[in-house]
Amino acid sequence: MQDINPSYDCVVIGGGPAGSTAAALVAEAGHSVLLVEREKMPREHVGESLMPESYWVFERLGVLEQLTASRFSRKVGVQFVNNTGRESQPFFFRSHDPRPCSETWHVDRAEFDKMLFDNAATKGAHTRDEVRAVDIVMEDGRATGVHLAHEGGTEHRVSTKVVIDASGQQTLLAGKLGIRRVNPELKKAAVWRHYRGAQRDESGGGVKTIILHTSDKKAWFWYIPQSDDLVSVGCVADNDYLLKGRGKPEQTFQEELAKCSGVLERVADAEAMDDLRVAKEFSYMTEQSAGDGWVLVGDAWGFIDPVYSSGVYFALQSACLAADAVSEGLQQGDTSAAQLGKWEPEFKAATNSVRKLVHAFYSGEFRVGKFVSEHPHHHGNLTDLLIGRIFKPGVATMFDDLDPWLQQQIAESNSGDAV
Q1: Residue 50: left (phi > 0), alpha (psi -120 to 50), or beta?
Q2: Among positive and negative, which fits the CA dihedral 244, 46, 74, 391?
Q3: What is the pLDDT of residues 369-383, one digit of tens each?
Q4: Which helix (H) or strand (E) holds 322?
Q5: Percentage of the chain with pLDDT > 90?
Q6: Which residues pair with 364 in a beta bridge?
Q7: What SS3 state is found at 139?
Q8: From the UniProt record, which GO molecular function terms apply (predicted)?
Q9: pLDDT at 69 over 70
Q10: What is the pLDDT of residue 152?
């Protein structure tokens, strides 16, 4: 690793959307930055559907033109299908807000992540793939360096003023410090694959993310049309239900698919790709977002759930906020925990709206169409949350009505009165 300098103002661990965004912005502010990714870029990754509010991060990074000219499928809305197969009216984003920022893309994560990784280099970051962060050097409670290992086996230490951990669900620093906490109410697992030639509804000028429940409501499927005539289809359920005491993941996937007529119909004439994958217990938070000389962003900070496709947007937004705090701290000579983590309380409060929406979904009684028909004044707030406008004033007022409404639906279901 002779081409890696012995010291940098900032070392960013992880070349996903969060790491590449943070590295690009800190480097653009005039600081020396090293961005390392342990795998060879491009690399495969799940998480194809974006939230429209990512637009503003893309604009700041200067990649909107690339995305607009890309082959990625344009995402124009979200639709829900309940356990009986009844479809909600689609939430078309442009019907709520006609601006270009109200639509986004279903991306190929390998290609998308590589685009952002290369953009970080364009902005001045020193980018290296196939370089693994083995450990964070801590001195008197402060992060002062990173131990790196090249794929060839060479290891050395790089000193730095700030470490940005964007290592994703590897959660390097959170694991080292013992601050990662799995959400006991969201111990979920996912099994997914791609299909070629599955149905694509482009009636709204693009494709939609479709969320479908199985007939017994024990699992749900995502249905995400992508480019190259591919559709990502994934099944999510409680970890114990999906992965314990059952057959191989392929068998489990087929068993759950048989209970979801909406997906079965859409893939009936399609070819299943040989790329079945499994992930589990991916919902967690960290007790601390920053310390002296370090800060967590993206999935290294936390991950809620895949149901509303919030993961990449939260990664991008947290990286932007953290990058600004890091740049300011480096300029002022203040890389304390208070400075590097100053953005996190507001961000955490804003993301809590999506967290509450996730818990509503998993109650099993959140019938989106029914709620909106009974509370039409919240259609805009719900659409805003699906777009990702979590910082919009008043958006969380929806829960003043949703929470008691949901409790009523659950009570009626338990008493057998639900229709």
Answers
A1: beta
A2: positive
A3: 899 999 999 999 999
A4: helix 311-332
A5: 86
A6: none
A7: strand
A8: monooxygenase activity
A9: yes
A10: 77
What number of helices (H) and strands (E) belong to the chain?
A: 15, 20
Say if strands 188-196 and 91-92 run parallel, antiparallel, or are unpaired. Answer: unpaired
SS3 of residue 213 by DSSP: strand
pLDDT for res 418: 42
Residue 74: beta bridge partners?
Answer: 105
Check if the beta carbon of residue 35 is closer than 8 Å to that of residue 127: yes
- At 48 the three-state DSSP class reads coil
The domains of the chain, with CATH numbers, are 7-50+110-183+283-342 (3.50.50.60), 74-105+188-280 (3.30.9.100), 362-415 (no CATH)
- What is the per-residue DSSP string for 336-398? -HHHHTTTHHHHHHHHHHHHHHHHHHHTS---HHHHHHH-GGGHHHHHHHHHT-TTSTTGGGH
Residue 78 one-letter amino acid:
V
The residue whose two tokens read 């029914």 is 370
d(CA 171, CA 180): 8
Mean pLDDT within 190-194: 96
Residues 6+ apart with CB under 8 A from 240: 187
pTM: 0.94
Query: Comparing C-alpha atoms, which of 77, 78, 86 is closest to residue 370?
Result: 86
Intra-chain end-to-end CA distance of the chain, in Å: 65
Q: In the predicted model, what is the mean pLDDT of the chain?
A: 94
Report the C-alpha gap between 38 and 131 in whole angstroms: 5
